[in-house]
Amino acid sequence: MKKWPAGLMLLILLMLPFPALAGVPLDTVKSNVNGVLDVLRDPKLKGESGKKVKEQRITVAADKLFDYVELSKRTLGLNWNKFAADQRKEFVELFKTILKDAYVDKITAYTNEQVNFTKEAPLSENTVEVQSVIVSKGGETPIYYRVIKKDNEWKVYDVVVEGVSLISNYRSQFREILGNNPPSMLLETLRKKVGKR
Amino acid sequence: MRQRGPRRDRRRLCVPGWTPCLVLLLFLLLGLTPLHAASDSPDPDTGAGVNVPAAGEQVEEAGSIPSAAVQKPSDEYGNVTEDVGGEELRIADPIEPWNRAMYHVNDKLYFWLLKPAAKGYKYVVPEDFRGLFSNFYRNLRAPIRIVNNFLQGKPGYSGIELAKFLINSTIGVGGLRDCATECFGINGRDADFGQTLGKYGVGFGFYVVWPLLGPSSPRDTIGWIGDWFLRPQTYVSSEWISPVGVGLYVHEKVNDTSFHIGDYEAIKGAAIDPYVAMRDAYVQYRKKLIER
After folding, report:
1. Distance, in angstroms, between B66 CA and closest chain A CA?
2. How many domains does chain A have?
3. Residue A13 within a domain
4. DSSP letters along B85-143, please?
5. Residue range B136-161: average pLDDT?
6. Helical residues (DSSP H) of chain B, grouped into ranges
7. How close B230 comes to chain A (CA, Å)?
8. What is residue A110's predicted lDDT score, i.e. its pLDDT?
9. Of A119, A196, B266, B291, which has the most beta carbons under 10 Å away?
10. What CATH number did the domain enclosing A110 receive?
């Protein structure tokens, strides 16, 4: 029979996975997030002595994962343009420090949760949302990482937890300050916050 | 004070990623916040698309999908040419002084009462048991999900939630186990009355922080009241406030909080203005549930 091979081939073709379609952004985020988790779970890094090393390694892993400049720009939006060149750099550094200070302690407490990367959804030409879910005894928490492609690398510029976007959240806070004050005032507020800890 | 409510329906946990529980968990923790629904599966019901898009009155605007990035990699500190962050959500806050005061009251309640209680409880009760209680309370909120999925034009999910309720209440031993999900892989969909109103086109109105209950709005407050009548615990006694009813509520709250100690602290610590951060998280979270 002649039709057989054609039908069979079609069937085989249909059964082939399409690896090309789901791929690079998700894998990148996954491996970088796992990089952070590996540090967290490293049994050698226990106790006070291990803590310093641990924090340093997390910082390195986090730098690979995040694009802090992109994150800062999107947080400030058009207000970014009001910042002078050196103010922009300072802002990025301060913002990065604040995020780290706030979350490093927190994440060091998480070692046993299971993280599943579920899928990726395109947002625009060069941005993609990588969706993941954290599973624990208390339930599930969806975490979406929004990544942007620059120089052939995918880096995170926003994290959306349970529908709440990190950059939008900061944006509303900064807006209140920048509404009536110059950029230097916001920088001063951030410096104080960083200095306090 | 009267306790009520269905809080959001799924326990959230914090995240191990680098940026764990951002802002979100806030309101859950905040004071004894009853925040409702979250949804389990984003997938639309059979009747997907029936949702009336809330043509809300407020200033709320949708906004999450950021527009395309504009900068060239070569000049990463250069100007942005369009508003790359996407629009932000806003909510009217005409009673901000009251809200800020209540925010502080709830903050103190958390640190002085709820957190110590949850810590002690967590120390004494093994995680597995706490997980069972979580399932138990979640199962009791099934009527809220059944009714509201129906009201939102998703009868398919109403049926699924009803099936889950029956399975978990029986095979799951009174709801202690979520056997519907674990044994049969049945996933439901969270729904609450505030969300239903939002889908019908009712806007937030404005921002309100209730003592004990946390961030809300007139719409969601009405939502809580509606949901409260659908909680079986509401009817354990003929009085509105009974020792058993209060005890159950407190236990539910403490049990839930035991999974989230540290979340609120992280959010607060990360915020420049914690009050504004919470308000924004509330708006984003609720908005998202309604759009879903």
Report:
1. 8
2. 1
3. no
4. T--------TTHHHHHHHHHHHHHHIIIIIHHHHHHHHHHS-HHHHHHHHHHHHHHTHH
5. 95
6. 26-29, 96-109, 115-124, 127-140, 142-151, 155-170, 179-184, 193-199, 218-228, 243-257, 263-270, 274-291
7. 22
8. 58
9. B266
10. 3.10.450.710
